[in-house]
């Protein structure tokens, strides 16, 4: 078993500011992403030329103008090419319609870097991997999902492959159910190595370079020309958000004026009128007693000098 089987850290693909200048225009603007083993990542890119350039760069088949792409700890481009496979790339390695299925399988198995029993027996290989029904068909007769399944099996016949990059699987059909489940099966190790005796299912990294992210896809995604935060696993369920309390209504504001408005004094509550007392129940008022008149002192009588008898007093 290859060393990559046991070294989980070597199954991380990291691209940082990956840029392809091109001769006349930019093929790929700076792009960063990170993909892990047993995961399918979908990368959106506009235009077939850009999608193919990204697929070639991620598999080490096109040297970047700047930036880096590394699979594990080995920064050598040769190591990346050895451990990766590009699948169904137009004008690169997409199966030609004029080939028979047997011819396609024979050519691809001949490129596997090690010898195995069915390498020169395409018919036996097809039967072993469940393709008996297409033995005598031409490539152009195959349904898109059937052809993609065949190409995934052929790529994983190489036991050194840890990374699969599928170029534009959505160009054949708008129905993502025709190709997305196959990518997920390959990432989970349910395609390829499980058919060989002595090799348990092996999880790999799978990247689909697409023109549009399918509706409902919740797995890792990235986009050409953008940064991407590393995704290491499924996101934890978010806690239910607390219902915010409704804000208190604002107090009415007084009309604006140059002078500040005076605060109105609270109105005094009118006191109830006092009840008039009942005169019948009141005690009689005291009668004013007239003061007795003071007697004026009697004047002393003047002595009468007149003689009563008519004579003068001597």
Estimated helix fraction: 10-25%
What is the overall pLDDT average? 79
Task: Categorize the overall geometry.
Answer: globular
What is the count of β-strands?
A: 8
Strand order of the largest sheet: 5-6-7-3-8
Largest sheet features: 5 strands, parallel
Poorly predicted regions are 1-9, 230-238, 254-264, 300-314
Radius of gyration: 54 Å
Distance between the termini: 188 Å
- What is the strand content? 5-15%
Find the structural class using helix and strand composition.
Answer: alpha/beta
Number of H/I helices: 7
Order of helices and strands: HEEEHEHEHHHEHEE
What is the topology?
Blueprint: H1 3-6, E1 12-20, E2 28-36, E3 40-44, H2 48-58, E4 66-71, H3 77-82, E5 84-87, H4 101-110, H5 122-128, H6 144-155, E6 163-167, H7 180-187, E7 205-210, E8 221-223
Parallel strand pairs: 3-7, 3-8, 5-6, 6-7
Antiparallel strand pairs: 1-2, 1-4
Notes on the structure:
The chain has helices spanning 3-6, 48-58, 77-82, 101-110, 122-128, 144-155, 180-187, and strands at residues 12-20, 28-36, 40-44, 66-71, 84-87, 163-167, 205-210, 221-223. It has 314 residues and is α/β, with parallel strands linked by helices. The protein starts with a helix and ends in a 91-residue tail after the last strand. The protein has 7 helices and 8 strands. The strands form 2 sheets. A 5-stranded parallel beta sheet has the order 5-6-7-3-8, with helices on both faces. Mean pLDDT is 79; it is low at 1-9, 230-238, 254-264 and 300-314.
